[in-house]
Amino acid sequence: MDSDDAALSGPAPESVAAPAPNTVAENTVSDDDTPLARELAEITRRRAAVEGQQLPLPERTRVITVANQKGGVGKTTTTVNLAAALARRGANVLVIDLDPQGNASTALGVEHRAETTSVYDVIVGDAEIAEVVQRSPDSDTLWCVPATIHLAGAEIELVSLVAREQRLRTALDAYLAQLDHDIHYVFIDCPPSLGLLTINAFVAAREVLIPIQCEYYALEGLSQLLGNIGLIEKHLNPDLRVSTILLTMYDSRTNLANQVADEVREHFPAETLATLIPRSVRISEAPSYQQTVIAYDGSSAGSISYLEAAGEIARRGAPA
Ligand SMILES: Nc1ncnc2c1ncn2[C@@H]1O[C@H](COP(=O)(O)OP(=O)(O)OP(=O)(O)O)[C@@H](O)[C@H]1O
Ligand SMILES: [Mg+2]
């Protein structure tokens, strides 16, 4: 969390909500020539650019699994904020929380106490997604299939079930087929492991999005992840592709972050988004208000970055 502190005390402004008179920008010696004023102007420009954007909607539902078996790299943060960003730009978006920690359910403000019917009942029991899905207070076009603590036992319970790798896919296909409106994007938030829950997510999706934290050891474990995805593609889901890599918790002031970003781009030039998600206090605060950063502080740099990343994903379209 060292660079988080740096972000707190550093010069980067978080919010660009119309600077009030007599704020720092006005009090500085030369208004538009300080790093702060330049950064504010840059964020204001980026905000206007994303707000003016019309995003294309996909012709068929894009199902995107957000996975990385490393813990704490930004999977959940990326899932909920991309989902909220796309919902805000006019898409119908479903988030499936497949992590017993239930962090995506928390961030989207949906009920997920132990007794709530949830993704556990869909995967291990016979519930349909339609019975457990909840609308997020974040947006009228954003829904969430919550996860409860019961999901923690699912890895073991799944072992003895028929078609144990296909259970989420079967449920999702049935749900999408019976809806009377289109869902444009489904994001599946995975736990930090490569067990049966993550395998269910890989089988249900056509695309994988890998968040990579701009930190030391970032690339460790990546070859194992790609190897597993390759195995799923070969044996269980020939349509699966790693479509997107997103660099998260980027702090431009550290050489290390820049090195990691360069290295990832070198290895995955086609998949890596141009947008980097900065390390941002606003992003880390939002979940404690049961909100995405898009709802919590829509004009912060973190929010704008997720809106930009969502724009890239929408414009690139699904992989062929
Ligand atoms: N860009 C960011 N800036 C600051 N903090 C962030 C950022 N992205 C994520 N965080 C914080 O880092 C922590 C880990 O993020 P997150 O929960 O999204 O990772 P994860 O990969 O889903 O973790 P897990 O493997 O436990 O599921 C959280 O406390 C989150 O709020
Ligand atoms: Mg998570």
CA gyration radius, whole angstroms: 20 Å
Helix content: 40-55%
Total count of helical runs of at least 4 residues: 15
Distance between the termini: 39 Å
Strand arrangement in the largest pleated sheet:
3-4-2-5-1-6-7-8
Strand segment count: 8
Low-confidence sequence ranges: 1-29
**Per DSSP, what share of the residues sits in E-state strands of 2 or more residues?**
5-15%
- Helix-strand pattern, N to C? HHHEHEHHHEEHHEHEHEHEHHH
The chain-level structural class is alpha/beta
Each distinct ligand: adenosine-5'-triphosphate, magnesium ion
Could you report the average pLDDT, rounded to the nearest whole number?
90
What composes the largest sheet?
A: 8 strands, mixed
Shape: globular
Can you describe this structure?
The chain is 42% helix and 14% strand. The protein is α/β, with parallel strands linked by helices and 320 residues long. Strands 3-4-2-5-1-6-7-8 form an eight-stranded mixed sheet, sandwiched between helices. The longest helix has 17 residues, at 35-51. Magnesium ion binds next to helix 4.
